Amino acid sequence: MAHAFLIHNVRCRPGQEAGPCRVLYSRVFSPERLDEGGCKDAEKERLRRKEQILAVARQAESACRLYHQASGKPPSEHLIQLPDESVSLQDAPSGVFRLPPGDPFCEEKTVLWLAVQSLGFSLVCDPHENPMLAESTLRLLAKELLDHLKLLGAGSDVVLKGDKTEAILGKFLPHGQLRFLNDQFVLSLEREAAASLGK
């Protein structure tokens, strides 16, 4: 089961100036247990979740920066694509890391990340999840979001496309449930997503 999915900025290419990490979109599928409390406690929990998601985005950006430094490639050799081209995620930087209990979640979590130009996609999963299934799900989600929402195009803003992002997540990651998908089922889901997005 996926705990959360987020889209964030990454400034991990060598030569890019470091800036603050921003979470552009996040969805928590299985929030940690909340203590019974009043309205003030609910607000504190919302802020705590927001900080947890930001901590994941920062760590994914750090992992991406380390990936690029360790690759030894000059900046010109890193994956660069034009917005009009079909997105190929085969050579996109990706990785996985574990979050120990208490940092930032109460329980241990596994985070898979994928970077495409200045966008990072991260999937927070339970530690017992199948990592290959989680990686294929993350790559499928990133491809669908990039293709349908044109996130790499000029003037594209992830923040303004939250409803369309939710629709795609609902098709490919319903309620955070990771599923084994064959090619025919993926094509069927892609047609459903295109129809629901009014393509």
From TrEMBL:
<protein>
    <submittedName>
        <fullName>AP-5 complex subunit sigma-1</fullName>
    </submittedName>
</protein>
<dbReference type="Pfam" id="PF15001">
    <property type="entry name" value="AP-5_subunit_s1"/>
</dbReference>
<dbReference type="InterPro" id="IPR029392">
    <property type="entry name" value="AP-5_subunit_s1"/>
</dbReference>
